[in-house]
Amino acid sequence: MIRPLFGPVSAILLSLVLVLAVLLLTSSAQHAKVSAELYSVLLIVNILGIVLLAALIAGNVWRLYKQVKTRTLGSRLTMRLLGVFVLLTGIPLSVVYYFSVQFLNKGVDSWFDVRVEQAIGDALLLGRTTLEVLKQDVVDDLSEGAQNLVDAGGSLEVIRQLDEIRERGEYSEVTLFTMTGRIVASSSQEPQTLVPDTPDETVLTRLQQRQIYANLEPISDSAQQLRIVIPVLPAGVGTPARALQALKPLPLRYANLAERIESATTQYKQMVFSRGPLKFSLILTLTLVTLIAMLLAVWAAIYVSRRLSAPLRDLAEGTQAVARGDYHTELPVTSSDELGVLVKSFNEMTRRINQARNEARRSHHEAEEQRTYLETVLAHLSSGVLSFDAQGHLRTHNTTASQILGVKFPEGRRRSLGTISGDHPRSEPFFSAIEESMKQELDEWQHPITIFGARGRQVLIVRGTKLPGKRGGYVVVFDDVTDLIQAQRDAAWGEVARRLAHEIKNPLTPIQLSAERIRRKYSQKLSPGDYETLDRATRTIAQQVESMKNMVNAFSEYAQPVRMRLKRVNLNQLAQDVVELHKREDSPISMIFDLDETLPEMMADGDRLRQVLNNLLINARDALAQTPHPEIRIATRTVVEKDAIYIRLTVTDNGPGVPSDIMERLFEPYVSTKEKGTGLGLAIVKRIVEEHGGTLWLKNREEAGASVTIQLPQVIRGAGVSDAADPGLRLRRSSARREEKIA
Amino acid sequence: MRKGLAPKSASSRVLLPALLLLLVSAAAVRAEFSVRKVEVENDRDRLLISADMELGLTAEVEAAVNNGVPIVLLTRIALVRDGLFWNHEIDQVTTRARLRYHALSDHYVVDTSDSEGIEMFRSVDDALRRIGTLRGISLAMPGPTSKPTYSLAVRSRLDIDALPGPLRPMAFLSSDWRLDSNWTRWRIDP
User: Fold this and answer.
1) Nearest residue of B to residue A30, measured between CA atoms
2) Would the pTM count as exceeding 0.90?
3) Would you tell me which residues 406-445 of chain A have a C-beta closer than 8 angstroms to some C-beta of chain B?
4) Closest to A595 (Cα-Cα) out of A549, A626, A635
């Protein structure tokens, strides 16, 4: 805020004091009977006032300058206004001051004229000359009288002579005294005068030097008299010298003229002498008045500038606040002029903006609530939901989508399907299917898609729907139906096993018993030839029934859901144990291990995995029956992908390989190249691997033989963490859900 | 009893309150005026004071007098009782002497308050000598007390207030016009 250093009340008070002081000073300098002390006090008050004003102005201007430097709002306008006001007051005041000083100098000088001065000087000279003439007349008269006095004999004669001199010359008093000033005789116009007027030491000194003293003396401010003293020299030796003094009041006519000349001369000389001091005094007063007026004007200019710029500064601050987003700014309306209207309009504007913003906030809040609601609903859906814009960029996704796909979708920025697919190659079939469907611009579509995710093979049912509206895009809803399919498959196989047991296995026992009964009943009745035939036939029936029973049992074993017993398994160790069982001294087959020493432990059903390895080894061994240098290679590897660890087991032989016509179906039940066997070995392998959430593939080697590769997740899908502290089992889970279903 | 006294201190304790004026130009005061000698005589219950002052005018003031400007010289003689913080004035006499130049007779006219009529002098020095010679100034005798001590304070100065108006501002500010002996004090044993 820009505030003056002094408030308006104190400013007015100071101004009043200064104006009063300067008025008193002006009057005291000229006319009023003001003491020197008061004059000095007034002068000091004025000077202090000027210094105080100057200091205040300097302080204000300095503050203003700093505010301009720091770009405080309103300071530049205030400075500009101040400059204009100072110019508007300073220039006229300076001009008036200059001309006043000039006029004053010339005016005072014009009072004096050389001719007047000459005339006054001449008048004084004339007056003095006239007085000299008068004095000379008296001197002559007295000299004549003195001669008579010298001739006079006795005291009475002397007194008579003095009276005569006095009367003749119209003197007020005639006195004869000795050269030391002692009165000898006196004659006065006024008989009551006891002691005659005696001359002072100076006069006596002159008399002793035989000089005449003649001078005009003022006896009061208006009356003057001539004092003439002459030496009376003795006629003979031995007689002491005397002095004769005559006092003669100046005749009224002369007295008046002399008084006027004296007064005029004195006044004129006094005025001439006072010319310099008078100018000084007038210019000093004028300077003080001008300075005070100027400083008060500057001060007033600062005050007015601030007052004028205050609403504009407030407005500027207000607009800046609005620009910052603060719409609560309410400016004070201090005037009813145009600025007041402006401020009112501003307040109205901010109020409306504030209202509009509050509305927008409320709407935004509602929309946010709606969005949160939808997000909550989406988050708690068991289906994964993804939405894409028309360009195939991911817009929204729910947490289930991330969980199903094992993909962490980036927040904040939209990424294209291709980018996401590139970042998550395991889910690539899923995203490719979506991209393909979107390219075809189908309104609705549905695909079953199989991906090999972090927790193994997953089957997803993906449904896409084109979004309405201008923006377009797709919403994709997908479910993980792996568990469902598995459950269905389990149920189907279980049904098959039950049917087999019920429909096939059950009749077998009566067949077998009936065959036994036929053989026993007719063994005595038939001829040995027929009996042999009967016996062979019934035995064949019994054997085939037994074989069929075995087959049904084997199939039941395959089809029946099995309860998995998960525990930590070291696949290297397991492989070595199984191979050890297959080793025979007479066997020509070389068992070669290529094991990954760093292979982590995994969660699996060890018995089932042992069966897998067993089946694979039996198949390989059977395949190598005709091979000259048979060898079986067992390899293990750790496969680390982005967010999952896989254990890979490969069993390779150098046999004849698998015929390409059955390559695709080799893992299906009852598909086999062998003449013996149930045809379920590889099917069981496949089933166990799938139960472990793994996958397997078979391929013929280019050189010779075939290889079966099993890839199992280190942690089975749906399994909980059983030992978080074990670094080798980072993703261990128990398959509780799976076990329940199996049970 | 008649005894001559020598000044105790030319600028010792000032009787009157310090004037603001002195703050401005005390340093510029010229010692043109000084009290040379004071004689005190007991006259029954009163003191009779005779004082001789050395009064000299600056060239500026003398020029003013010669140009017809009348000047007034004030001499103040006071009897004060010395106090610890403040001196109490018991009695005082102020004599006023007016000096002006009489152009027609080319004489200096002195008009003093302590004598009747006017006196004329051929030179300004004679006139000042007359003004500086004070005789028979009567002051009340202090009571016979043991404790307090008494001082006689004398001060002579040019009265600027008595100057003609146009001259006064210049005289207020100029040190040439600041003719003041300041207070000179003598201790008195009653």
Assistant:
1) B165
2) no
3) none
4) A635
